[in-house]
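Lab notebook, bench 4. The sequencing result for the construct came back, and we need a structural model before the next group meeting so we can plan mutations. Quick request posted to the team channel:

Model the 3D structure of this chain.
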Amino acid sequence: MFHSSLAALLFFAAGIGNVFAQNLIDTAKHPGNPFAERQSVSCGGINFRWDFEGGSLDSVALVSQGDTLVYDLFSRRDPLNPADPKLAPSSRWYLFRMEGTSGKRIKLNIKRSECRRPFWSLNGVEYERLSAEEAPLGQGYILLDCATAHPADTIYIAYHNPYLASRLNKKIEQWSKLPFVQVSSIGKSYEGREMPLLHITEPSDCRKYVVYIHGRIHTSESPSSWHLEKLIDLIVANTPHSKRLREQLDLYILPFTNPDGVVNGLSRSALHGINLEVNHADPDSLTAVEVKNIRAFLTELTSKGKAVDLFLNMHSQIADYVTYWIHTAESSSKEAFFNLMKIANLTTSQNRLFTKGEFSFSKMHPKYLEGWFWDRFKEKTTALTFETPYSFYGRKRGEVADTLWVSERGMEELAANSYNALGDFFGIESQDRLFAEPKSGGGARQLRDKEYLYPGKSYVLAKRNGAKAIYKRSYLDAGKYNLYIWRCNLPGICEGDDNAFVKVGTIEQKKNGKFKYKYNKTIKGERLGTALLLPVSSDL
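Done. Here's the predicted structure in token form:
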């Protein structure tokens, strides 16, 4: 557990890669590990193996031989949850290697899990999706032609592109070399693995907001790790806006909440069977050591009365769309709901992969870490869960275009929206991303109520058509800017151009100095918030 003071944390200034490489990836050795003895099965001339990092399968049965070898593959169930025995163990994740495949035609019937265009690899590192013909949606099988399409003697198959401890270790080694990134451990897992924590910040005289992000509670949810990696890469990038974020944020990021589950190839539980996501209201005797480590760290981080300002809980879901899980105002408060909806709408603004109609809502509950924060800090902490899909974006909108299948490139796009929303939520600006607050002109009224969503300090209500919203800055560099204005017309969930930055045009600032812009293309009843100015060279 996390017992030492925050200032006295052990920082691995050198050799970080070797430290975590050995600790995170070691073969399971805990006497209570039901998967310590890894397995392989040979039948029909093919050897199936899952005795490697993240490998998981339960059993293999040869169904028939002939021109095509047909197998039934059963994914492995997680251990029974001692904290909630009624919760059915998950068996979503599978990752295995087939040896002896060259020249053969193979059909794999996937049992106990989904088969939604899984991934394949020749080396266990670089993966790509199987084609629609090789894994047709809704059919539950994989068909491989290892004579033509996959002429190899060894092939890896994975439920989704794996994000393993070996990948995280390489990224930690890379990030830890940056002067503004410190790496520590909040404690050890049930099986004795470190739980590495990134602290990203730069010294400044600015007010600092505290942000805590963690991921990979459910270890089959590898898309969430790709999303989080891309987000961290943006935060540590050598850009003016990233530097400003680091100067105004204290970011604490725990990439793997459940390292044992990742290494051992589990689906939703930790090695002891406990689902860490819903373990925060259980008695101490049934609270996982990983959860205790997290809460001890957060308790010490907030011990001087300073709350965590924002908590993001990174997950992936089987539904074919991105979502935020937002706690209702009835189960929290009007102010808390306002903040949750604000960051959610900032994330969906100008986002082709995630729309407001895809938000999800739930009641606040103490079994979640969001509930733990609520019980201690109420509205001071904005806490919500972000879910990426495994398969494709936009199913809720009726879109199933091949270009919308989840990919590493798509995660980069999602991460860019999350990155912008992170800064916009706290009003952090740089030369790459500038704001101007609205002031009411003729026929307009300035308001601050929270019946409508808006970033910044206020919004302007048009009392008639053609009412003026006036935007000023004390200084703006000369140049061309694309101008976006936040529209906050409707309460709650809105579609279209509501609760989003909407582009109104391109403007030119002819010389360095004061900036003033009058917007009068208003419609009676329209509500306009903050303006966003982006240099044309670095537009959305």
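Residues 260 and 271 are 6 Å apart (CA to CA).
Will bring this to the meeting.
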